[in-house]
Amino acid sequence: MKRRPLFLISCLCFGFAFFYVPILSLMVFSFNKSRLVTVWGGFSTQWYGKLLHNEQILKAALLSLQIALASATLASILGAMAGIALARFHRFRGRTLLSGLVTAPLIMPEVITGISSLMLFIFMAEWIGWPSGRGFTTVTIAHITFSMTYVAVIVQSRLSSADVAIEEAAMDLGARPWQVLIDITLPVIAPALVSGWLLAFTISLDDVVITSFTTGPGTTTLPILIWSKVRLGVTPDINALATVIICLVAAGVVAAALIMHRAESRRSRDEQMAQAQGASG
Amino acid sequence: MVGRWFDSKGWRDIVISVPFLWLLVFFLVPFVIVVAMSFARRAELSPPIAFLDHWTYLQTGNFARLLDDSLYLRAFLTSLWNAGLATLFCLLIGYPMALGITRVTRSWRNLLLMLVILPFWTSFLLRVYAWMGLLGANSWFNKALTGLVNTILPADRAMSSIPMMNSNFAVVLVMVYSYLPFMILPLYANLEKLDQTLNEAATDLGSRPWQVFKDITLPLSIPGIIAGGLLVFIPASGELVIPSLVGNASDPMIGRVISDEFSSARDWPMASAVAVALLLALVLPIMAYTHFEKRAQERVEGRA
Amino acid sequence: MVAEGHKPFIRIEAVSKHFGGFTAVDGVSLDIMKGEMFALLGGSGCGKTTLLRMLAGFEDPSAGRIFIDGQDMAAIPPYERPVNMMFQSYALFPHMTVEANVGYGLKYESMSKPERMRLVREMLELVQLQDFGARKPHQLSGGQRQRVALARALARQPKLLLLDEPLAALDKKLREHTQFEIMNIQQRTGITFVVVTHDQEEAMTLADRIAVMDKGVIRQVGPPGDIYERPNSRFVAGFIGSINMFDADAVKDGQGVALSVPALGCVIRAADIAASAGDRLSLAVRPEKITISRERPANAVNCVSGAVKDMAYFGKDSLFRVELPSGALVSVSSVNHARGHGTQMPDWGERVWLSFEPSTAIVLKV
């Protein structure tokens, strides 16, 4: 009596059309010969050629990558520490406050995070003379604060589902607590750290609102540059830039997913082999 | 000596205190500044604020202005209305999608989840931008939609294009588009965990498919609906980018008001007061969520 | 018990079920009578649950037909079948009270609310849970949940009740008690029960008739006594209870056909050997049918000797493993009649005699 859920399948088709038609349309019009983005004027790759020679965009992209690399790496370290502290240390002063501080940035509207960070930097400059101006450092700090909480949540949930007994076993076998952290806990949370780092990296690469408040003159990230351009309207060179970015990100995500899927299926195959050998041996 | 200290508890103190201090300095302190600032007043200084003489912090003038000036109240209502509509449509579109993903074979399931997550990783700004190209009066999408609408409308009232750009309709549409994955993913996580034998049991007891959905699936997925709803509603209500790009400037949302008070009007105290009010408005649904979470947790533990 | 010559109430006709390349049920035909308590017994993956799910309507047979009370079930969806099921996990609705769970099956029936409430109360009384109507499933013990599941499945007064491993989730003590409760309820309601189980003891106590399944095929159908005492194959003999099994050859001597059993090192007489000399057979003897003694028993027909290798004391009986000169091990179980174990019992390494009656020897085709 199994029937195909036709209604659900048509909802899925509609939903995915909704997801992808705008993006595909944007990509198609990036190959438009005409300057008018809405009228098809023939096929051309001229906008991609112009993109390659646009110093401003290349510089902004490079800066964004630098900020994303720095903030994702530091956010992963800080986030992992916070995640470990919350998942493994059950009693320390301020535990409730820390767990609140880890979740609060996730639900804080970005505008408020942006404004409050900016005020902090201004007041700090007044009181202790640092940071002297706003730019790379302040943007990176704001990104770290925001994205480390994502890493912390991912690491914490990974650790809570992992068995504490293996850490106790390592200690029983003579490892000091910090050696257990390095030999056992870190390998256990490694997959969570990878996905946390990737998430922090994309969040930083993508951020407009917080960056727009914490950046200063001369520090223009790619999203800020795009933001200032798209406010003026739709242009074919932005379409070309968007196509490049979307394709790069999509390729990265698909590759990461494939690698993870491979590893998982290899693991389950190994487990099956071991089972079969155990049964016959 | 240092080694002994490090072995016994030093490493632990470091693991706890480094991220703790970071969040205290860069998240809690700024937050406290915003709250304190909301009780200050604007001044022609640098930074452009002043507290009342003798450091009387409780100057509530900003909050009084929130209620007096209809601009703020209207912005609040617009925000809540738009965010609420976006949440509702995300639910209406996302629920059947999430349910559909749980009903296909495993390999299809992975592919479809991937397709849901993919837009979530690609640039938010560019996804909003993609809609700017579709909503404009001359776009193929607008023309196609106009043609469709004109088949229903009488000939004398036919439209040349639908004015979608720079409207609340556009804001809601693009918010639904941007936040749909946030609705689908928690709903999927919830629906996927539901015990399929409960559906079979209900079918066995004489319920038709839609009755099974109404009696079993829907009530059991309420935690997922709430989680997804909050994940959409909270960022949507404070949204700044979408209304700036496709919204109606004369009917701003609250995020825009905060940003404008801060940057254009340079009234930091007022911006802070609006921000605090927005946070208070969001605390209620979050508390409802944690309440539900706890109850769901208790139910699970009770069963185990 | 089943009266012969009755029209079958449930008729399963050459039913098969394939999942992709895997055959879960392979051409099963089975008749079940009205009011019968029938058990499908088999290990995991033998197809018993698939067969049950086809009766409930959750799976469609790939081939063959199922009739319930004369009606072909092919086009009838699960929600319209006169069949209800008690799930292995009980599948109680966690968001509904016990009362709502039990009454759920009546929700879309055309009946008045007081009538429905009366039926629900009746069912709760039947399973002795009348005071628990307002509770939610997570506030119940395992045994209570099991009874709610039973009451819920019975509330619609089905023609056929399916029970999927009804006792698997209960602990040992509760299991025995519940077994009798289920039998009692079956007798009081007169509903036909089909029980799926992997537990042979459960099948033996509960069922009027048992079907032993293996790899999608029914190996033997019959009352518990038949299955235990007269298994028709090595598989059934080995699956039900423990048994000693030896290779044997049919030989002809002065008194008729007997068995030459190399492992026992002698010729064995059995009651009914349907074979001619030279056939390869198997000899199977249950441990409790073998008598163990220190002295060679007088006028024993089948008798061998060996040394006690292991022994285990279980309270009501003891199990010996006796090693024969051929190296074969024979399990013997002996009831401990007298108090004070150890005095009259053989000891480790001691030489003992084993004997059994020809009527207890089971002869099977290889």
Q: How much helicity do the residues of chain B have? A: over 70%
Question: Largest sheet of chain A, described in full?
Answer: none
Structural class of chain B: mainly alpha
Strand content of chain A: under 5%
Return the CATH topology of the domain at 65-233 in chain A.
Answer: MetI-like fold
Multimeric status of the protein: heterotrimer
- Largest interface, and how many residues on either side? A-B, 84 and 83 residues
Provide the CATH architecture of chain B.
Orthogonal Bundle
- Mean pLDDT over the full residue set of chain B: 86
Throw out a few tags for this protein.
heterotrimer; A: 281 residues; mainly alpha; globular; C: 366 residues; alpha+beta; Rossmann fold; OB fold (Dihydrolipoamide Acetyltransferase, E2P); five-stranded antiparallel sheet; elongated
Overall description:
The complex is a heterotrimer of chains A (281), B (304) and C (366). With 281 residues, chain A is mainly alpha-helical. Chain A contains 11 helices and no strands. The two termini of chain A are 42 Å apart. Chain B has a single domain (65-303), classed as MetI-like fold (Orthogonal Bundle), CATH 1.10.3720. Chain B contains 13 helices and 2 strands. The two termini of chain B are 47 Å apart. The longest helix of chain C is centred in the middle third of the chain and has 18 residues, at 172-189. The radius of gyration of chain C is 25 Å and the shape is elongated. Chains in contact: A-B, A-C, B-C.
What is the fold's blueprint, element by element?
The complex is a heterotrimer of chains A (281), B (304) and C (366).
Chain A: H1 6-29, H2 46-52, H3 55-88, H4 95-107, H5 110-128, H6 136-161, H7 164-172, H8 177-206, H9 209-214, H10 222-230, H11 236-280
Helix pairs in contact in A: 1-11, 2-11, 3-6, 3-8, 4-6, 6-8, 7-8
Chain B: H1 2-37, E1 41-42, E2 49-50, H2 61-68, H3 70-102, H4 106-121, H5 124-135, H6 140-152, H7 168-193, H8 196-204, H9 209-220, H10 222-237, H11 241-246, H12 254-263, H13 268-303
Helix pairs in contact in B: 1-13, 2-3, 3-7, 3-10, 4-7, 5-7, 7-10, 8-9, 10-13, 12-13
Chain C: E1 10-19, E2 22-32, E3 37-41, H1 48-56, E4 63-68, E5 71-72, E6 83-86, H2 98-103, H3 113-126, H4 142-154, E7 160-164, H5 172-189, E8 192-197, H6 200-206, E9 209-214, E10 217-222, H7 224-229, H8 234-239, E11 244-253, E12 256-261, E13 266-268, E14 280-285, E15 291-293, E16 302-313, E17 317-323, E18 329-335, E19 351-356, E20 362-365
Parallel strand pairs in C: 3-8, 3-9, 6-7, 7-8
Antiparallel strand pairs in C: 1-2, 1-4, 4-5, 9-10, 11-12, 11-14, 12-13, 14-20, 15-19, 16-17, 16-19, 17-18
Helix pairs in contact in C: 3-4
